[in-house]
Write a structure and sequence with these properties.
The protein is built from eight helices and nine strands. The chain is α/β, with parallel strands linked by helices. Strands 1, 2, 3, 4, 5, 6, 7, 8 and 9 form a nine-stranded mixed β-sheet that branches.
């Protein structure tokens, strides 16, 4: 399927919701405060994954030097900027033009050269990337198979995808949709529980796009540790994905609630 006929994955309502939050995106006490607490946890996983993928030195300051990185659903650049500091030539894509404007302004203030684009990934023709990241985005797209296919299409041979998303469990419904929005930890209307994907569903989506999913790591919360990587995937999880041999592709259809 070419770019002109690829299904739309952006939900205009979702883009508008996050676009309204753009001005506060970099405020650690604002509407994106949860993302600021989550970002170090994700970065720890990212650093471990890239060192494993390319046999890097865990003490190296710029392990992504010479590599291209793409962050899809980048918001105002919370992940793009650390990736740039790790040495990558970074491109960030987001559905909301307001987020892209905020990202460009913040990167300019930080002296970082990051290529930010607004729009559908499949329509932007950005080329191939060694690293493709997509954090807390899958649950917001209109067409999950088409979106995951676009991520896979952006990946260079031998590259690495890192993706995080909430799990669809009773615990996530209670805490991420109910309690978190009730107490203001997450802006109201951010999450729709039926759009969450289980690890098995994500594995099938990735396999259908020609990618093999690694073992999921949970992103959990406790009073003593706060947000942290865990074996408990009940709330949120993060995974890697790499090229899958064509003969191994699993064509199982994910079964999302209606």
């Amino acid at each position: 399927m070419d770019n002109a006929t690829a299904p739309a994955t952006i939900r205009p309502g979702e883009a508008a919701h996050f676009g309204k939050l753009a001005a506060e995106w970099w405020d650690p006490k604002g509407s994106s405060a949860m993302l600021h607490r989550l970002n170090p946890v994700r970065l720890g996983f990212v650093r471990e994954a890239i060192d494993k993928q390319w046999g890097g030195d865990p003490l190296a300051l710029r392990p992504l030097a010479g590599k291209r990185a793409l962050d899809v659903g980048c918001g105002a650049g919370l992940l793009c900027e650390p990736l740039a500091r790790l040495g990558a030539a970074v491109t960030g894509v987001d559905a909301a033009a307001e987020n892209i404007a905020a990202a460009r302004a913040h990167a300019a203030g930080a002296g970082l050269a990051i290529d930010y684009r607004a729009g559908e990934l499949s329509a932007l023709a950005l080329g191939k990337f060694d690293l493709v990241t997509c954090m807390e985005v899958l649950e917001h797209v209109a067409d999950k198979p088409a979106f995951v296919a676009a991520l896979a299409n952006a990946l260079a041979p031998g590259g690495l995808v890192i993706l995080s998303t909430p799990n669809r469990t009773p615990q996530s419904r209670l805490l991420l949709v109910g309690a978190a929005e009730l107490v203001g930890a997450i802006p109201r209307g951010t999450h729709h529980w039926k759009d969450f994907a289980t690890p098995d569903e994500l594995r099938a989506l990735l396999a259908d796009a020609g990618l093999a999913m690694g073992a999921p790591r949970g992103i959990a919360w406790s009073p003593g540790k706060g947000l942290h990587l865990s074996g408990d995937t009940a709330l949120d999880y993060i995974v890697t994905a790499t090229d899958l041999p064509p003969a191994s592709i699993n064509r199982a259809e994910p079964n999302f609630p209606r």
